[in-house]
């Protein structure tokens, strides 16, 4: 599909469209059932870099945070995420399998399990009305596809442009949020935004434990497809067609 916005930004990594469907893709990257260590964020990056479709269902979403981030409901259950994100729990190390080493001291993203639990309770949990969630690189999209969200991987200049474009037609200065979460969980926030009349873009990939899978200057920007269409329609006449933006591209 053609996109003047993507051309103007000179995006290097493929933007990824998030689609909901009841039809299983014929081919694509996916986790095996029971693989609880699979990382949705890594799959998102792989889909972009390898230009391949990836897909998930309620039995193949990898880790609990990934299932939650994909919109398959609250998948944490009895998983001690509050301890893992904070100070750890020595008594649970043996129960964690491969993740046991992390549980020993915790990731220290929150001061205590109580603060981490508040974070969990703040998540906009949802259960998407479809059997499969599909990641599809922009270049593979067809006119028949109906994406729910679009995920950009952007450097600081490109992210700056996306933030400006999200508010270009509004003037509210309230068109972007930047919540902390797992690297895949801006998808969850994106689904919540998609339900709104005037949805916002979501800056993400702040998860320190997953920052190493993208270049150090890259963050994600997730938008409901409705907002993407609004931004796309606004490229002509915007700063993206002005000398100031073209000049900025010289340093990339």
Secondary structure: elements and pairs:
Elements: H1 4-9, E1 16-21, H2 40-50, E2 54-56, H3 64-69, H4 81-84, H5 100-105, H6 113-122, E3 132-137, E4 149-154, H7 156-166, E5 176-177, H8 186-194, E6 201-204, E7 219-224, H9 225-233, H10 243-249
Extended strand count: 7
Question: Could you say how many structural domains there are in total?
Answer: 2
Distance between the termini: 24 Å
Q: What is the beta-strand fraction? A: 5-15%
List descriptors:
252 residues; 7-stranded mixed sheet; globular
Describe the structure.
This protein folds into two domains: 4-65 and 127-249, no CATH class; 75-122, no CATH class. The chain has a seven-stranded mixed β-sheet with strand order 2-3-1-4-7-6-5. The chain is globular, with a radius of gyration of 19 Å. Helix content is 31%, strand content 13%. The protein has helices spanning 4-9, 40-50, 64-69, 81-84, 100-105, 113-122, 156-166, 186-194, 225-233, 243-249, and strands at 16-21, 54-56, 132-137, 149-154, 176-177, 201-204, 219-224. The protein is α+β, with helices and mostly antiparallel strands and 252 residues long. The model has no long low-confidence stretch (mean pLDDT 94). The protein has ten helices and seven strands.
Quick rundown:
It contains 10 helices and 7 strands. It is of the alpha+beta class.
């Amino acid at each position: 599909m053609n996109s003047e916005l993507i051309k103007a930004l000179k995006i290097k990594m493929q933007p990824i469209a998030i689609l909901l469907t009841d039809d299983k893709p014929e081919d694509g990257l996916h986790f095996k059932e029971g693989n609880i260590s699979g990382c949705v964020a890594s799959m998102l990056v792989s889909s972009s870099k390898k230009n391949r479709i990836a897909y998930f269902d309620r039995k193949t979403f990898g880790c609990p945070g990934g299932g939650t981030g994909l919109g398959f409901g609250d998948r944490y259950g009895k998983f001690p995420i509050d301890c893992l994100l904070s100070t750890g729990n020595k008594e649970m190390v043996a129960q964690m399998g491969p993740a046991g080493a992390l549980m020993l001291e915790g990731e220290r993203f929150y001061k205590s399990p109580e603060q981490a639990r508040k974070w969990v309770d703040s998540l906009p949990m949802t259960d998407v009305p479809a059997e499969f969630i599909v990641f599809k690189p922009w270049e593979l999209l067809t006119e028949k596809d109906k994406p729910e969200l679009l995920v950009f991987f952007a450097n600081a200049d490109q992210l700056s442009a996306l933030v400006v474009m999200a508010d270009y037609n509004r003037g509210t200065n309230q068109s972007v949020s930047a919540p902390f979460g797992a690297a895949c969980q801006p998808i969850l926030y994106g689904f919540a935004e998609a339900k709104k009349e005037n949805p916002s873009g979501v800056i993400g990939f702040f998860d320190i434990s997953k920052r190493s899978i993208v270049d150090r200057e890259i963050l994600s920007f997730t938008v409901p497809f409705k907002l993407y269409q609004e931004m796309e329609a606004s490229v002509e006449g915007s700063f993206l067609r002005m000398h100031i933006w073209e000049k900025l591209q010289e340093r990339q």
